[in-house]
Amino acid sequence: MPEKQGPLGSANGLWAAFGLAGCAGALTWMLGWLVVGVSELDERCAHGLVGPGGDFRVERSGFPPGVRCVFADGSTVSAGDFLGWVLWACVVVAAACAVLAAVVEFAGLGRARAVVRFGVLAIVSCVVLAVLCAFVPLYMAPPGREPLSTCSAFVTGVYERASEVRRAVFPPQATCVYPSGVTHELVPAWWGVMARSSLGAVLITLFGLVLALRRHGWRPPIPEPRGA
Questions:
Q1: Is 1 helix (H, G, I), strand (E, B) or coil?
Q2: Most buried by CB count within 10 Å: which residue of 25, 103, 143, 190?
Q3: What pLDDT is stored for residue 21 in this prediction?
Q4: Cβ distance 118 to 15 under 8 Å?
Q5: What is the band of 113 on the pLDDT scale with cuts at 50, 70, 90?
Q6: What values do phi and psi take at 59, rounded to 5?
Q7: Residue 9: what pLDDT?
């Protein structure tokens, strides 16, 4: 007989929407960096081409990518705001699709493919978590590189020679430590949010895998052929 379907149907469409929203968010994030890089907003503010002129400070953000000039009178001029809204929309859609897809997958534990489904999801979640926690700190601060090179003033904005670089696996972080006690974190804080979200996905998918294995055993039951 045909394989039993979950009460909420299949989650294939939701996973596809999650993937599309994630890819759109990644492309928007890269485009945002490009827009911020070519805007030269700080130079335009300094020459009085935008804003009221006078003293100002430059604020930058990595997620979403953005740069803004904040003047003494409180007025603000920014670049990349529209792409920031698009990026957040992609994040919200991707998160909503992931949550709904997980609900559908748990509702379909009665299906024979539940073991395979949760097994694949668990593997993917573990790979993403491993990449975030291992690759990112190693990429930002490779072992063996001198602190002077890793913590250059061009990257950190701190004109002091770093004494050491401390690395943390979870949440992923590489911190420049200076003799004066000043510290500077090389990995943006939003990478830590992604790592925690990935850890949550790992735990949820492993829980689903355990439930599926308890219901179906180590081998998913083979659907009987039609007409049998």
A1: coil
A2: 25
A3: 92
A4: no
A5: confident
A6: -115, 135
A7: 58
The residue type of 96 is: A
Q: Which residue blocks in the chain are alpha helix, DSSP H?
A: 12-39, 41-46, 81-107, 114-130, 136-140, 147-150, 153-156, 189-216
Contact present, 180 and 162 (Cβ < 8 Å): no
Contact 183, 177 (CB under 8 A): yes
| Integer Cα distance of 76 and 69 in angstroms | 6
Please give the Cα distance from 115 to 219 (Å, whole number): 8
Provide the 10 A C-beta neighbour count for residue 53. 14
- Residue appearing with tokens 């299906």: 111
- 133-137-138-143 Cα dihedral, nearest 10 degrees: -130
Residues in the chain: 228
How confident is the model over 5-55, as pLDDT tens digits?
555 557 788 889 998 998 998 899 888 888 887 777 777 777 777 767 777
Residue 226: predicted pLDDT:
54
